Amino acid sequence: MPLPEPPPLPALTRAEGELVDRYLEVVDLLGRINPARAEHTYGGLRAAQALVGRAGALRDAPALMHQRGESEVHAPTLARALRVLDGERRAGRVTVPPPRGG
Question: Has this prediction a pTM greater than 0.85?
Answer without folding.
Answer: yes
